[in-house]
Amino acid sequence: MIAVGGLTCLLGEMPKLFGQTTFEPAVFQGLLQSDSDNDESFGFITLALARSGSFTVRFNLGVNKIGHHSYAKTGRFDANGAFHFEGPEVTDTRYAIARIIDLQLDNGSAPTQIHGIITDLTHSSTVEMERVAGSNSSNPTPEAGYYTFLFSDSGATGIPPGYGYGSATINRVGRISARGRAPDGMTFSRSASLTVNNRWPFFTTLGGKTRGILSGWLAFEESPATDFAGQLIWLGPEQPGPNQAFVPEFSGTVSVAGSRYAAPAGSVIEMNSSTNNLHLSMSGGGLETSMARDLTLTSANKSIFSPRLEGDALSVNRTTGLFSGSFLESNNRTVIFRGAILQKQNIGGGYFVNRNGEAGQVVLSPVE
C-alpha cells in the first residue's frame, strides 16, 4: 500500500522492467497543458525517479486563489514503464484534485521522456516531461551564460500588441533563472532546468496569482538570429466566471526569440553613424498615431534627443541589455516604457501601458 496525496492505491511487487532489474535514476521536468483556456489545466511538473522504479512527483495546477493547487504524490512504475492511479470521487468541488493519473516512460533502461494525462474529470491535462540535463561543475552545459529575450503576439485577437521581454541566466549545471514582464506589464520570475534535448519547460504566473500565465517549451538551437525560440500559450488576467472559475480576459500564443547577451565595449546596438543613429518608435496603446524619434546613442550608451520634446527619456543598461524610458502622450501624460536588446538581431523591443490599461509596442533600431 502506498499513500498518494491522502488516498491509497495497491501496487504489486516491482518486476523487471524491459529485462532490466533497475531503473536509471533521473530527475524530469515538464509541463501540464491543454487545448482549453482554463488555467486549471496548466502547470509545472517535476518527477524524481529512483533505481527501484519508485518516484515522487510534484506539480501545480492553475493560479486561482480558490482551492488547493500544489501536489506531491508518490508511486512506482510497473514492468512496462507505466503508472496508473485512480482516486475516489471528490465531494468538495472547490478543489481540483487529480482523480486519474497515467504516466508512461519512453524507455526503461534509460528514460528521457515521460508522457501521460492528469484529470479531475472536469479539467484534463496532457503531461510532457524530459530528463534534466546531467551537467555538473566539471562538465558544464554549453548553454551556460546570460540571455535576453522578447516575445510578441502571433496575431491572436485580444493579445496585447507590445513586446514582452526578459532576461535569463543559465548556470554551469543547466539551471535557468528568468525574470521579465509580459506585454501588458505583468511581471514574472521563475526557475527551471535545461533538459537533455536542450529544451526549457517555461511556466510562470504573471503579476501574482490571478493575473494570467505563460506556458510552453522553448528550444535552444543556435542560429544567425536566435539562440532559443518557441511559442508560449498566454492566458490573460482572470475575470469572474461561473462557480468561481477562472475566465481569461484573452488567450492566445506569443512567439519567443532569445539570444546571448554580452556587455559590449561600445553602444548596445551597432550603429551606422555617430549621430542621429537610433530610431525609437511607439505604436498602439491608445495612441492616435504612431510616434517616432531619431536620437543619438553614444558609445557610452547615453541618449541625446535632438530636439528633445517634453517627457522624452531613454536609459540603457549596458551590462544587462535592458532599457527604459518615457514619452509624453497628446494629453500631456507621461508614459513609461521598458524592454530589452536582442544582440544578435541588433534591435530592442518593449512595451508601454497607458493610464487606461492599453498596451503598446516600442522598437529600438539603428537608423539606416
What brief labels describe this structure?
eight-stranded antiparallel sheet; mainly beta; single chain; about 375 residues; Lipocalin; Porin
Number of strands: 28
Q: How many individual domains?
A: 3
Q: N-to-C terminal Cα separation, in Å?
A: 70 Å
The radius of gyration over CA amounts to: 24 Å
Principal-axes geometry comes out as: flat
- H and E order: EEEEEEEEEEEEEEEEEEEEEEEEEEEE
Measured by DSSP, the beta-strand proportion falls in over 45%
Major β-sheet profile: 8 strands, antiparallel
Given as residue ranges, the uncertain stretches (5+ residues, pLDDT < 50) are 1-19
Order of strands, main sheet, comes to: 6-5-4-3-10-9-8-7
Helical content stands at under 10%
What does this molecule look like?
- The chain has 368 residues and is mainly β.
- The chain has strands spanning 2-4, 7-9, 26-33, 43-49, 54-60, 70-76, 82-86, 100-105, 113-119, 124-131, 145-153, 164-170, 175-181, 187-193, 199-205, 213-220, 228-235, 238-240, 246-248, 251-260, 278-284, 291-297, 303-305, 313-316, 322-328, 334-342, 347-353, 359-366.
- Helices cover 0% and strands 49% of the residues.
- The protein contains no helices and 28 strands.
- The radius of gyration is 24 Å and the shape is flat.
- It has 3 domains: 2-131, Beta Barrel (Porin), CATH 2.40.160; 145-260, Lipocalin; 278-366, no CATH class.
